[in-house]
Amino acid sequence: MISKFHFIVICALLAVYCPHLKGQELKWTEIENGIWKASVGEPEDISLLQAADIRPKVKALNKLPTADFPFPEDRIKTKIVDGKTYLQFPLTREEQIYGLGLNFKTVHQRGRIMQLHVDHYGGRDDGRTHAPVPFYVSSRGYGVLIDAARYITVYAGTGIRVDADDKPVLRDRNTDPQWQAQPYSDAVEILVPAKGTDVYIYGGSTPMEAVQRYNLYNGGGYIPPKWGLGFTQRVPTLYSQEDIAQEAQEFEDHDFPLDFIGVEPGWHSMAYPCTFEWDRTRFPDPKKFNNELLEDGIRTNLWLNPYVSPIGSLYPKLNGLSASHTVWNGIVPDLMLPETRDIFKEHFVQNHLDLGVSGYKIDEVDGFDFWIWPDVATFPSGYSGEQMRQVYGLLIQDMTAKWFKERNQRTYGLVRASNAGASAMPYVIYNDYYSHKDFITALVNSSFIGVLWTPEVRASKTAEEWLRRMQSVCFSPMAMLNAWADGTKPWSFPEVEAAVRDVANLRMQLLPYIYTTFSQYHFEGLPPFRAMNLVEGFSYDQQVAEGELDSTGNPYKVAIKSEIKDQYMMGDNILVAPMFEGEKERKVILPKGKWFDFYDGKFVGENEVITVAPGLEKIPLFVRDGGIIPMRPVQRQAPKLGEKVDLIIRHYGTREGEYTLYDDDGLSFDFEEGQFSNVEIQVKKDRKGKLVGTIGSPEKGKPYSYNKKVTWEFKTK
Q1: How far apart (Å, rounded) are the C-alpha atoms in residues 404 and 354?
Q2: C-alpha separations of 236 from 361, 489, 496 in Å
Q3: Which among 273, 276, 379 is positioned nearest to 329, based on CA atoms?
Q4: Could you write out the DSSP letters of every residue in 211-259?
Q5: The DUF5110 domain covers which part of the protein (predicted)?
């Protein structure tokens, strides 16, 4: 037997030399206004935020209100066991959490178990998705980020510890009808398969404020070039430059919007794996091809995946700088190496950007497991296959975005994988999954995690489905028809061609509003497309159960804790409620305040559930009381540099309203140096109670693409 003294000495030595056997007391440091950071164990020298190369917008963060640390520090538990990091964060009984990746079926994440793993989406919300961002937002108004480039497992209020602070009620299944197979849990528990990680907590008084802090800390949201917010068509795989020129002419003949064309794999001399070199049979003169389209106001966007073909000129340069395993017989360049990035840059600038290419669609950087590199792969930089899987989408976004920024040229493209820190990236996520309803849920969820998502259109079995999908995509970050496989056109269903054109034209008319909304993303961290749970007057804990009374004695009609995944806000003022094939009507939940129909200004309700039957030709849109919507006349393309257009300003309802219209040159990054305009629009009541609109003037010398002529439309019924 050992003595009590020797036992105490042994325990003390274990505590010093084996800290993984005990919990770690975290030291939280407020690194920016309302943002705290702590390091657990030994964080790895590769992380999500490092891969994204974030640059916090400190001035914008300092404009937000101060925030308190959201819970007692001693309620956060950590420990390192067997080389893995265990984290525990408290949850209250009435708390809901959102985020934890680009989920397609669920918005409420409490009570779920997920492994956050970059992957091609397989139809399940299990954490394996295109953007498995390890960031969650609480209905109480705070956010938590685990900055680890690992497959992270999250128990989002599922595990129940013996020493839980708030234990569930013990029930007898034999006699108690309230017995539950999954009792109440008072914690979010997270397992990181690494010896340490950095943890960030974002404070706030509302969920939106926490999301703003997250986005601003990551550099603020991206403002696309104006042409990027127009309509885009991706052409069939083997289209030649002549075919594409003809495609552009068909859009003009049909008087349909078109700002950029997606050129699919056939532009490569070999694809799967790729050469990144033009096929000279289909594209004998790439520079002429790009320039002639640009003369017609149309940009080109090139498809690629990053796996290098042995027959390409890049192969011998990158062969020693790539992974141990191939993808489709192509080598996988190690993008953590500066030398690799330099080789890519030289080739892409010379062969693409210098020839007029405006952006990229970056495919297949997500999965499936059976085609992408395995976790046993090794990379010359020393990082594992798992780590590279989690950050590769971020690395290639960051690399390509910097090529354009060095030219003071904004880009806008597509990507199949992303992660934390991507707010400032010029890319929209897409995939091969094709559920229309789930696409809208993903659009809702994208607003919690600082990414953009498009519910792209590819094909439809009926004219009704075609129109409904087109309506949805026109109210998303990228209005895209992806015709690479079947060659569909916007007018493929003649019976709804006019309605499809109408909604595409409406998007083009709304560019002043949409562009201003993206400026809010950049300068304020406000997502351009927003979950209802982030909207003032609609947050999770502000609703009251049906049948209960509000402070004035009137009944609320909105059910508490509803999972709202089929409607969302576009900017501050427009509520979007997509329709799906087969629906003649749908329910819409309105936040507090009065709401009006976008099209005719008719009052539709106030803080209640309404049922709408808009007919096939319209997507239901609603505007809050006092809402101001700046628009422009119908035009097929975004304004060119120096072009000025008239303004149409709509006001809805009976309340006075204010709106700040943002503008810049629409192409460069000069706005980051102050070259932009903020013009104040006001609608006030005169002495007789009549609504009167006024608009200010831009600061002299600042970019402003609108004429002095303004048409005012007061939509009130």
Answers
A1: 11
A2: 14, 11, 22
A3: 273
A4: HHHHHHHTT------GGGGSEEEEPPTT--HHHHHHHHHHHHHTT---S
A5: 647-700
Q: Which residue matches tokens 């400190």? A: 58
**Number of neighbours of residue 386 by Cβ within 10 angstroms:** 18
pTM of the model: 0.94
Dihedral in degrees, nearest 10, Cα atoms 523, 526, 529, 534: 180
The CATH T-level fold of domain 29-169+181-218 is Immunoglobulin-like (2.60.40)
The whole-angstrom separation of Cα 205 and Cα 541 is 12
Residue 441 and residue 104 in contact, taking contact as beta carbons nearer than 8 Å:
yes
Q: How many CB atoms sit inside 10 A of residue 432's CB?
A: 11
3.90.1300.10, 3.30.460.80, 3.30.1330.60, 2.60.40.1180: which CATH number matches 534-542+561-624?
2.60.40.1180
Q: What is the pLDDT of residues 668-693, one digit of tens each?
A: 999 999 999 999 999 999 999 999 99
Most confident of 1-10, 444-453, 554-563: 444-453
Q: Please state the domain extents for the chain.
A: 29-169+181-218, 232-497, 534-542+561-624, 627-714
CATH fold of 232-497 reads: TIM Barrel (3.20.20)
**How far is Cα 131 from Cα 78, in angstroms, rounded to an integer?**
25
Q: Which two tokens mark 637?
A: 């393309």
Contacts for 1 with CB less than 8 Å, ≥ 6 apart: none
Give DSSP secondary structure letters for 650-701.
EEESSS-EEEEEEE--SSSSGGGGT--EEEEEEEEE-TTS-EEEEE--PPTT
At residue 118's C-alpha, the angle toward residues 191 and 132, to 5°, is: 60
- Between CA 565 and CA 185 the distance in angstroms is 24
Contact between 467 and 499 under an 8 Å Cβ cutoff? The reply is: yes
**Does an H or E element contain 138, and which?**
strand 135-138
pLDDT tens digit sequence for 377-418: 999 999 999 999 999 999 999 999 999 999 999 999 999 999
Q: Work out whether the CA dihedral 89, 93, 94, 99 comes out positive or negative.
A: positive
- Supply the pLDDT for residue 123: 86
Rounded alpha-carbon distances, angstroms, from residue 100 to 154, 284, 510:
9, 46, 31
- Find out whether 61 and 34 touch, Cβ atoms under 8 Å: yes
N-term to C-term CA, the chain: 89
Nearest-angstrom CA–CA distance, 540 and 141: 10
Eight-class DSSP state of 581: T
Which residues does residue 51 pair with via DSSP β-bridges, in sequence order?
A: none
Same fold, 29-169+181-218 and 534-542+561-624: yes
